[in-house]
Design brief:
Elements (H helix, E strand, L loop, with lengths): L1 E9 L5 H11 L18 H6 L6 E7 L2 E7 L7 H7 L5 E7 L6 H12 L3 E7 L8 H14 L4 H4 L3 E5 L4 E3 L10 H10 L14 E10 L3 E10 L1 E3 L3 E5 L5 E6 L2 E6 L2 E4 L2 E3 L3 E5 L9 E3 L17 E6 L15 H14 L4 E4 L5 E6 L2 H13 L4 E4 L2 E2 L2 E3 L2 E14 L3 H11 L3 E9 L2 E9 H4 L2 H8 L5 E11 L11 E4 L3 E2 L2 H7 L3 E3 L6 E2 L3 E6 L5 E3 L29 H7 L4 E5 L4 E5 L4 H10 L1
Parallel strand pairs: 1-3, 1-4, 4-5, 5-6, 28-33
Antiparallel strand pairs: 2-3, 6-7, 8-9, 8-17, 9-16, 10-15, 11-12, 11-17, 13-14, 13-16, 18-20, 18-21, 18-22, 19-20, 21-34, 23-24, 24-26, 24-27, 25-26, 28-32, 29-31, 30-32, 32-35, 34-35
Helix pairs in contact: 9-14
């Protein structure tokens, strides 16, 4: 059977996973009466809730005697470590672009990686049946994007199609028959080359491990593409590190390949196949699994360095241990080390005290997904404010710069530009109309300046703005950037909050908690309307007497509290504050719970 390995690249919410659903259905991967969930490739709970792809996953379809392995890549740059490894397994890419929005920052990030590997793209203009679609403009922008990324002549001479993933059709012409996806299947088979490795079946077995997972019955499982040779179940192979050091020798207990959405056992893996192997105990991502006679490892793709670091610590608040079962630093350490082993874009380091860990990664979203997964597993944590990682470059101290693309209503563009270029030390790169009363703004902004900006941005644009960001490069340090200006309201008592007390405190600022919420001394319960922190008593009830008087029985009507998501809470806090994360609650608190220590630290700052 002929073989094709192809990856699908798209920006967040451009319809990538929906298109893969239709490819699976029309290829016959499902029975006619089989119940299949929408966005079947998004198997992770967080992926379904947030509507984004976090983990790179592969599937396999058959079309007219050709097996097509399709890899679904994450659309967000924070998960770029997944992308860089996965692209080394494929021979072509399908770039899916929203016909209304055109290529966006995450598209640019992943596409640059694909072009650098010499992969020839196929451009699919999706959602052309939407009323605001402009497929011709989007196609021109794709060509300009490829040219700016240094594509060669073969890559610039790309085929394109018009499609609607939700309706399940793709055609070469905009006014085509709009029946099915057979034209896209044919284009993939004709345009994407067969794996070069197929010609190397007579050589020794080699495979580069690209993803790591675990199974309660099989143990460690490594996935990758067979670069040369053949492998049968029961064969003895070895694992080599990137530098050629022998890690272990093991017997392959099982070989599995993707068939539709499920794994299927196979007896033999051949060159060009994407397979998973079981039987190893130490081998991990970026290692070479090979025959015993092989001495040189395969080249692994370099991974972009992390740009931010977040400190994970034990939860030492008065409410610790009430929600979660995993609260010890030893258990947290084991979980983080396991994450660092499977996700090579994350680096873990212990602090000298041993009860906190510095986790370095690509961005706030990646950190937020890791923390969310841990709290669902029963962990309790305290999280410090993210810190940007600096480096010593040719020009001295350098900091990471992000390219920010913003689509905003014309009325709010002035406020956005003022915040980005003034307060947050950014540089305006481009500003152009985006149609229907909107403006597209592209700016290069220090990563430090974007921590905590999302909430402010939504306020400035009345919730109508859309902001996307991607790592751009390094630049000389741009000086101090002001953080949050407003102070916070700090509880001075422990207990359950009282509606009457919160009602009286509303004139002091906005609240983060409602009535009957558990609070403790040092916990942040709201944002002060001024710049200083203020200690307040949310437990102070109404004094009761037997004397009735006018004005004493006013109805208590509370403004609904501001409930922050995990990412919003992490971005909101200052350096002297922490986010307390448990399976059932997200709380903010001062780093120092003792009132005398808090006052001493506030005076020192």
């Amino acid at each position: 059977m002929d073989l094709r390995n192809v990856a699908i690249i798209a920006h967040v919410d451009h319809g990538k996973t929906t298109l893969v659903d239709e490819l699976l259905k029309q290829s016959g991967a499902f029975r006619e009466n089989q119940q299949v969930a929408e966005r079947a490739m998004d198997s992770n709970d967080l992926e379904r809730e947030r509507g984004i792809t976090i983990l790179a996953k592969a599937t396999s379809v058959e079309w007219k005697s050709t097996r097509i392995n399709i890899v679904d890549t994450p659309g967000h740059a924070d998960f770029g470590g997944e992308v860089e490894r996965i692209l080394s397994m494929v021979d072509g890419v399908v770039l899916l672009v929203d016909a209304a929005e055109g290529p966006m920052p995450q598209t640019k990030f992943v596409t640059s990686k694909a072009l650098a590997l010499g992969l020839r793209p196929i451009v699919v203009l999706n959602k052309v049946d939407k009323p605001d679609a402009e497929p011709d403009r989007a196609l021109d922008e794709c060509f300009d994007l490829f040219a700016n990324l240094g594509a060669d002549e073969d890559q610039l001479d790309f085929p394109h199609m018009y499609a609607s993933g939700r309706s399940g059709w793709a055609d070469h012409e905009l006014d085509g028959p709009r029946k099915d996806l057979s034209a896209l299947f044919k284009l993939i088979v004709d345009h994407v080359p067969a794996p070069k490795q197929v010609k190397r079946e007579d050589e020794d077995f080699r495979m580069l491990a690209t993803t790591l997972s675990s199974d309660p019955f099989l143990g460690r499982i490594l996935t990758g593409r067979v670069e040369s040779g053949k492998l049968k179940v029961g064969a003895t192979v070895q694992a080599l590190s990137r530098i050629g050091q022998k890690i272990e020798q093991f017997r392959v207990s099982r070989i599995q390949a993707f068939r539709g959405l499920a794994y299927q056992d196979i007896e033999e893996a051949r060159a060009g196949d994407i397979v998973t192997l079981a039987g190893m105990q130490k081998a991990t991502v970026a290692d070479t699994i090979c025959a015993l006679a092989v001495e040189e490892p395969l080249d692994a793709q370099p991974i972009d360095p992390p740009t931010i670091t977040v400190t994970f610590g034990i939860n030492d608040s008065p409410l610790a241990g009430r929600d979660g079962k995993k609260v010890q630093s030893r258990v947290i350490r084991d979980r983080l080390m396991k994450e660092g082993e499977s996700n090579i874009a994350i680096k873990i380091a212990e602090t000298p005290s041993g009860d906190a860990f510095e986790v370095s990664g690509r961005g706030e979203l990646q950190m937020g997904v890791l923390i969310e997964n841990m709290r669902r597993e029963g962990f309790e944590l305290s999280i410090a404010r993210p810190q940007v990682i600096m480096r010593d470059g040719e020009t001295g101290r350098e900091e990471p710069i992000e390219e920010v693309t913003i689509d905003v209503d014309d009325d709010y563009s002035g406020a956005v530009i003022e915040k980005l270029t003034g307060v947050r030390k950014g540089e305006l790169v481009e500003m152009k109309p985006a149609g229907t009363g909107k403006t597209r703004i592209i700016a290069h902004v220090p990563a430090r300046g974007l921590i905590g900006y999302q909430g402010e941005f939504l306020t400035d644009t009345r919730g109508t703005g859309v902001m996307n960001r991607v790592f751009h490069g390094w630049a000389p340090y741009k000086g101090k950037i002001e953080g949050r200006r407003a102070g916070v309201l700090i509880s001075m008592e422990s207990g359950e909050s009282v509606a009457f007390a919160l009602w009286n405190l509303e004139e002091r600022g906005r609240m983060f908690i409602g009535p009957q919420a558990k609070v403790y001394e040092g916990m942040i319960i709201g944002e002060h309307s001024r710049e200083n922190d203020l200690e307040v008593n949310p437990l102070k009830g109404k004094k009761l007497t037997n004397v009735r008087a006018s004005g004493t029985d006013d109805a208590v009507r509370l403004t609904p509290p501001t409930i922050m998501s995990l990412e919003e809470a992490i971005a909101y806090i200052n350096d002297d504050e922490l986010v307390e994360v448990t399976p059932n609650a997200i709380r903010l608190r001062k780093r120092y719970l003792d009132p005398h220590e808090r006052k001493r630290m506030s005076k020192a700052s």
